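COMPLEX REQUEST
Ligand: cobalamin
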Amino acid sequence: MGRLGALFFLLGGLGALAQVCEITEVDSELVERLGQRLLPWMDRLSLEHLNPSVYVGLRLSSLQAGAKEAHYLHSLKLSYQQSLLRSASGNDNSDSEAKPSMGQLALYLLALRANCEFVGGRKGDRLVSQLKRFLEDEKGAIGHNHKGHPRTSYYQYSLGVLALCLHQKRVHDSVVGKLLYAVEHEEHLRQAHLSVDSVAMAGLAFSCLELSNLNPSQRDRISLALGRVREKILKAQTPEGHFGNVYSTPLALQLLMTSHTPTVELGAACLKAKAALLASLQHKTFRNPLMISQLLPVLNRKSYVDLISPDCQAPRVMLEPAMGTSSQTQVPEVIHVTLKVSSILPPYVQSISVPAGSSLEDVLKKARDHGRFMYGTQASLSGPYLTSVMGKKAEGREFWQLLRAPNTPLLQGLADYRPRDGETIELRLVSW
Ligand code: B12
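STATUS: Structure written out below.
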């Protein structure tokens, strides 16, 4: 057999072995280092900073944070229940205080399931009714003819359906129907760069519904939609192996792992994606706690669908805080970043000097404190979200997009992206 023949033989063999989407064991040190990055975030216990996704990610991982983890759930319960129930009862005078959104309420319900709890009692029932109401409102916003859009997004809609399903709460066929329609006519989910995340979240919701059989009259449509989701995700694989981009790959893998229909294509695609993810872990691509929280379950071969019947007794390794690295005494090098805003009149262009390693948020702060630049942000589970620039607020379905000139959308937000010397960053008001 020639060399080429041997290669085909080997690849064929691998393909034949790898049929379902299996994530084989990952170097435990690598996983631990990833988990350690979550620990400092778990000390931030205000409503603005509490992140139910972090709790879910940790509980579905091979790691634990002992008492810190229990305290975190306790703080989540206090803050979320208080603020959600207050807004439900109409006794809410705290307009200035952000209330958890539909998706955040859904993630909170996931966190309860991750601790093997079912929502129950009077307070629990009110949370369930609130989430059902949110979904009904969103269904209304999409409209009978499916021409409208949810006020939040199909991603949050899917999270809502998933959360109720995990708690064995049935939603009306017409609510599931809107999500089915969106996947069947996928242009509704095609929101530029983020279609893979949204499709994967819809798939996780369908996968839960399929297993729980809560909407039996839609069984066949759900199975077909799941097939479409898988197909779409597989088609979105990049030559490096990511599904969509590096940050949508964890959710995509969570979804693919729920598939029990083995195909050679599926197994091979997952092997490639795992290799790509491992390579990015070496490069510390995953620093954002939300992103880490979506990845950790995958590295432990789990998905959100496992929250149907979570294993709360599974042994998990205790996380120890990372050793501090020696502080640098050298004066850091200064870099120059050009900040550009063309969506306003007159356009803004300014070169800003910051220490090397600064985040884009540091650049914006410097431009504001030492010039005429203005911007506003809003806290989110992914970090600070840019909401306004030079007094111009993104409204409705607009957002301030972050780009590296000339035209490359950034894959990270203000707090995480670190510009290089000489780079031009554009802030552009666009519709999604
Ligand atoms: C929907 C969505 C959007 C919508 C949000 C509007 C809306 N009404 O929903 C739009 C299209 C506007 C958007 C924009 C961006 N997004 Co986006 N988005 C998502 C998505 C699919 C779901 C977010 C969500 O609803 N989460 C659930 C709710 C409960 O959590 P939440 O915190 O309350 O949700 C809010 C925030 O997530 C915020 N938001 C959305 N995207 C981003 C990105 C960042 C960095 C921040 C800080 C906040 C933020 O909008 C949500 C609604 O208010 C995620 C996918 C994922 N895997 O998480 C990507 C995702 C979070 N987005 C991402 C990115 C990169 C961006 C942009 C920075 C792209 C760009 N180059 O401009 C911008 C944000 C720029 C800014 N102004 O700060 C990445 C983040 C990767 C990372 N390293 O952290 C993700 C993971 C997608 C991906 N695979 O690349 N996004």
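REMARKS: The radius of gyration is 22 Å. Strands lie at 63-64, 317-318, 334-341, 348-355, 375-380, 383-389, 392-393, 398-404, 408-409, 424-431.
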